[in-house]
């Protein structure tokens, strides 16, 4: 219900802005940021506290902290000039989120080292240029009975990648290091439809990632901190829709 109220507030703000003229991008970002913080203050105070401590906010299409770029430059294979050796940023993946709202990324030059810090686990999908699909779970192995999660995951340059939150209730705080430093000129983004055109053999995967349901992994104990043990309304451990503080989200994404 809290999320529904938040969405309604956003709609009311948008309607009000239409009456007074179309808002600028900075104005709209400020309005949505303020509403989102008010929502988190009630629904997820711990997340808000951590965001503020790490100065994480909406930056360039994602929730991220201030970026750091190394002042040391070096030469890397495939690059004809010296570039900063690495860049670093803290970031946040919200519950049930998939990619930067559904986009795959591919960097021509930088390897990406992702490190898990706190919160829900995330499945990272990787696709090579030859169409080989690999899945790795970024998270705490203690939360997985089959111990298949990793604290650190490397995404090689030239690899298409997208992340998929495995949690309906917890955000994921992580950081990533790009080696050499992230260069937006060499970064490329793809929708699920564009990826399906490139790799039609994996059309089922792209269709699943295009929908908001959380796909739970066997052995993943999302309610490990819940002493009451919420009941599973679906009666199974397969694919389930969002519940908890994000209950009701699915209805807004129906096609």
Automatic annotation (TrEMBL):
<dbReference type="InterPro" id="IPR014710">
    <property type="entry name" value="RmlC-like_jellyroll"/>
</dbReference>
<feature type="region of interest" description="Disordered">
    <location>
        <begin position="213"/>
        <end position="247"/>
    </location>
</feature>
<feature type="compositionally biased region" description="Basic and acidic residues">
    <location>
        <begin position="213"/>
        <end position="228"/>
    </location>
</feature>
<dbReference type="Pfam" id="PF06172">
    <property type="entry name" value="Cupin_5"/>
</dbReference>
<keyword id="KW-0732">Signal</keyword>
<protein>
    <submittedName>
        <fullName>Waterborne settlement pheromone protein</fullName>
    </submittedName>
</protein>
<dbReference type="InterPro" id="IPR011051">
    <property type="entry name" value="RmlC_Cupin_sf"/>
</dbReference>
<feature type="domain" description="DUF985">
    <location>
        <begin position="98"/>
        <end position="186"/>
    </location>
</feature>
<dbReference type="InterPro" id="IPR009327">
    <property type="entry name" value="Cupin_DUF985"/>
</dbReference>
<feature type="signal peptide">
    <location>
        <begin position="1"/>
        <end position="15"/>
    </location>
</feature>
């Amino acid at each position: 219900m809290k999320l529904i109220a938040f969405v309604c507030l956003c709609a009311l703000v948008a309607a009000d802005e239409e009456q007074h003229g179309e808002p600028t991008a900075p104005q709209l970002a400020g309005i949505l940021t303020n509403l989102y913080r008010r929502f988190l203050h009630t629904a997820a105070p711990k997340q808000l506290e951590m965001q503020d401590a790490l100065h994480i906010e909406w930056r360039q299409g994602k929730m991220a902290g201030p970026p750091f770029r190394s002042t040391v430059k070096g030469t890397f294979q495939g690059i004809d000039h010296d570039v900063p050796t690495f860049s670093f940023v803290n970031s946040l993946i919200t519950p049930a989120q998939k990619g930067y709202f559904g986009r795959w990324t591919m960097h021509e030059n930088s390897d990406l080292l992702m490190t898990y810090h706190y919160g829900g686990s995330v499945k990272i999908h990787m696709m090579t240029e030859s169409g080989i699909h690999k899945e790795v779970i970024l998270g705490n192995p203690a939360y997985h009975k089959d111990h298949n999660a990793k604290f650190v995951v490397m995404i090689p340059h030239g690899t298409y990648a997208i992340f998929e939150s495995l949690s309906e209730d917890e955000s994921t705080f992580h950081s990533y290091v790009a080696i050499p430093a992230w260069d937006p000129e060499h970064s490329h983004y793809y929708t699920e439809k564009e990826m399906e055109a490139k790799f039609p053999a994996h059309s089922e995967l792209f269709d699943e990632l295009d929908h908001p349901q959380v796909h739970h992994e066997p052995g993943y104990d999302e309610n490990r901190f819940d002493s009451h043990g919420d009941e599973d309304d679906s009666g199974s451990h397969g694919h389930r829709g969002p519940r908890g503080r994000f209950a009701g989200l699915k209805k807004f994404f129906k096609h």
